[in-house]
From TrEMBL:
Native source species: Marinicrinis lubricantis
Signal sequence coordinates: none
Domain NADP-dependent oxidoreductase: 15-315
Superkingdom field: Bacteria
Protein name: Aldo/keto reductase
Record InterPro entries: AKR (IPR020471), AKR2_Oxidoreductase (IPR053135), NAD(P)_OxRdtase_dom_sf (IPR036812), NADP_OxRdtase_dom (IPR023210)
Gene3D superfamilies per the UniProt record, alphabetical: NADP-dependent oxidoreductase domain
Length: 327
């Protein structure tokens, strides 16, 4: 496993780390025992960083992380997120009193005294522009409740707003071969300011595995079913904002990226890791096999400049016009 600095912080993250949305809920059925085996398999292979949130399974993902990292707390770093357990449009949701309740709840579930990275969880743009929530986070940082803080954002605009606040040390963004817009401005500016970048949804909710057909169905409690068109939250969180059938068609035309790299999924993760501004990629998983498949991306060949240019042109000419919602 290779490690990278999380921006200008003193946190070293495994370049392939893992997100825990899938094992918390909203991705169909999952077994706690298999989730724990997956977490242990990841740590045994050098993964030292995990991302979670207080709403993943109503805190269940945080509790699973506490169980999996017991006795290994010193070697593992955890990022969690807050705000979506309440009304994200209510200013009171970002008050000191409310945020303290959120952080104390996460600390209890994680069984930790300090959260390594605390992130605002995709709030409305107006909350980021207002900025008062960052003052609350400054206070929690001074008290030692959190080591660093950042924001998980939906759009490039929101990421750029966050860069105006000097103590924002990390951004979590949607970024993949089907979602390349951050390359233009956000990633270079974040890098210049020493802000770490965590990449979520690197496989576009599974489209970039190449395993789906237009007839593929998902369980009712899977967001790929109930949020396919943005019914419950930002449409970009599901299939990178692409209509499912169009995404399947486009993924077929990307099958060539797997040549010499084993699978499309490994190639798609490699493409992200080849971008120098990225601190780590955080794919999800539901079992040991998925953990191992994702980790294999670390050793597959990088993309040539010609291949990178081919993918840029594919995105600009064939993909970007089909993405729905602000991004």
């Amino acid at each position: 496993m290779k490690y990278r600095a999380l921006g200008s912080t003193d946190i070293q993250v495994s370049e392939i780390s893992f997100g825990t949305w899938a094992i918390g809920g909203s991705w169909g059925s999952v077994s706690d025992e298999e989730s724990l085996r997956g977490l242990h398999a990841a740590m045994d292979q050098g993964v030292r960083f995990f991302d979670t949130a207080d709403v993943y399974g109503d805190g269940h993902a945080e509790e699973l992380l506490a169980r999996a990292t017991k006795g290994r707390e010193q070697e593992t770093r955890i990022a969690t997120k807050f705000c979506r357990a309440g009304d994200i449009h209510d200013p009171a949701n970002y008050s000191e009193q409310t945020v303290r309740l959120y952080v104390e709840g996460s600390l209890k579930r994680l069984n930790r005294e300090t959260i390594d990275l605390y992130q605002i969880h995709c709030p409305p743009t107006e909350v980021l522009k207002d900025g008062r929530v960052f003052e609350v986070l400054d206070k929690l940082q001074q008290e030692g409740k959190i080591r660093y803080y950042g924001a998980s954002v939906e759009t490039v605009e929101e990421g750029l707003i966050c860069l105006n606040y000097p103590n924002v040390r990390a951004l979590q963004v949607i970024f993949n071969i089907f979602r390349q817009k951050p390359l233009e401005e956000l990633l270079p500016k974040a890098s210049a300011q020493g802000v770490g970048v965590l990449v979520r949804l690197p496989l576009a909710s599974g489209l970039l595995t190449g395993k789906f057909s237009e007839q593929t169905t998902f369980e009712p409690d899977d967001h790929r079913s109930f949020n396919r068109n943005g019914e419950q939250f930002n449409v970009g969180e599901t299939f990178a904002g692409l209509p499912f059938e169009k995404g399947v068609e486009l993924s077929r035309r990307l099958a060539w990226i797997a040549e010499g790299r084993g699978t499309m999924a490994r190639a798609a993760l490699r493409w992200i890791l080849d971008q120098p501004e990225i601190s780590c990629v955080i794919p999800g998983f539901k079992n040991v096999k998925q953990v191992e498949d994702n980790l294999a991306a670390a050793v597959v060949p990088s993309f040539t400049e010609e291949e990178l240019q081919r993918l840029r042109e594919f995105y600009n000419n064939e993909v970007s016009m089909h993405i729905r919602g602000p991004y």
